[in-house]
Write a structure and sequence with these properties.
Strand order of the largest sheet: 1-2-3-4-5
Shape: elongated
Order of helices and strands: HHHHHHHHHHEHEEHEHEHHH
Mean pLDDT: 93
Radius of gyration: 24 Å
Structural class: alpha/beta
Number of strands: 5
Number of domains: 2
Strand content: 5-15%
Distance between the termini: 37 Å
Helix content: 55-70%
Low-confidence stretches: none
Number of helices: 16
Largest sheet: 5 strands, mixed
């Protein structure tokens, strides 16, 4: 399964042949059901199809509606495999679709059930065609993201790391670089000093605080309690003022931090505006936040933060170019290992 998906990612022509071949072998209604399952938002069912049919090809007498021995181990490996190839993934498909049972066709997803039931009576050629088609469709969703390069930790001085990150947030990104740079630096700092008691969370770039049930774009959390909340924006600080007090009240916060663009010339104006409020709200310039947090980290910790930033950009926002631009900036800044280093 892994080899086939990798081959389909690498060779579009071979992938298209598998997709074009399927209608000649697989009944129209089954292919229609499969086309419902594969792109479904609950990707556990997609993974279930891949795994069940891979076992069905290895053992023709296997009942495809039953979870095989070793299936969960394969599901976990598949989750890692797909994530490494920038394909939407889950850690363990069977944890979601068959947690306390070995039976998969249980009436929870009609198209999934019908595909497995049909597979039990299918020929080897039909099973192979369906398996190839499913692998090809999954391979199509791989995002062409540059891999994170290995960092040269000796180069990660405050000056060079801060220069990289400050240059990054100067690039228009709808706030992606601002939010995820802040989150990555905070995550590293908190994990180093308070990992057992607190953690840092962030949300998808385009998710509202209401839909994500978050008090801010970035939060420091202990258990279910929000210790600190940060609203992060690439816009001027004044755009966050009208909603800041409501955010505190709605989420029962003791205070709120707004991280935005606050030019030095507007520092006094921001303080005067905050003095008009009864709530405890801080306004901080994103560039100053980056400098302070970077200074607080050691070189190995800065390396961890840069890796975290890559992971957040890859996972929590949809624009591949933003991830790849970040990788290029790391290379241009001379912060990656090179031959002979």
């Amino acid at each position: 399964m892994f080899d086939k998906i990798d081959r389909f990612i690498a060779d579009e022509t071979v992938r298209n042949v598998a997709i074009a071949h399927a209608p000649a072998v697989i009944p129209e209604n089954i292919l229609a059901d499969l086309d419902v399952v594969l792109p479904h938002r609950h990707v556990s069912y997609r993974d279930g199809i891949l795994i069940q049919f891979s076992f069905g090809l290895a053992e023709p007498e296997w009942d495809l509606t039953m979870r095989p021995t070793g299936g969960r181990t394969l599901a976990q490996a598949l989750g890692v495999f797909l994530a490494d190839r920038h394909i939407k993934s889950v850690k363990d498909a069977y944890q979601n679709i068959a947690k306390n049972t070995d039976r998969l066709a249980r009436g929870n997803f009609a198209e999934f059930d019908s595909t497995l039931i049909w597979g039990n009576g299918a020929t080897v050629d039909q099973r192979q065609a369906l398996f190839d088609y499913a692998c090809a469709r999954v391979a199509e969703t791989a995002r062409p993201v540059f891999p994170m390069p290995e960092l040269n930790r000796s180069t990660l001085t405050f000056a060079r790391t801060a220069e990289l990150l400050l240059g990054l947030v100067d690039v228009p990104s709808q706030g992606a670089y601002d939010q995820f740079t802040t989150a990555a630096l905070l995550q590293t700092l908190v994990a180093e000093h308070d990992a057992s008691a607190a953690r840092v969370e962030t949300k998808n770039l385009n998710a509202s605080d209401k839909s994500s049930r978050a008090a801010g774009d970035v939060q420091i959390v202990a258990g279910s309690h929000v210790l600190e909340a940060f609203e992060v924006t690439a816009n001027n600080w004044s755009t966050k003022m009208d909603g800041a007090s409501k955010t505190i009240r709605d989420n029962d916060l003791s205070r709120l931090h707004v991280i935005a663009r606050r030019p030095d010339a507007e520092r006094a104006a921001s303080i005067e505006r905050l003095k008009e409020l009864t709530e405890d709200i801080a306004v901080l310039d994103v560039r100053q936040v980056i400098e302070v947090l970077t200074a607080a980290l050691t070189r190995p910790q800065r390396a961890d933060a840069l890796v975290r930033l890559y992971e957040l950009l890859d996972r929590y926002q949809p624009d591949v170019d933003r991830v790849n631009a970040y990788v290029r900036k790391l290379e241009e800044a001379g912060l990656v290992e090179r031959g002979g280093d």
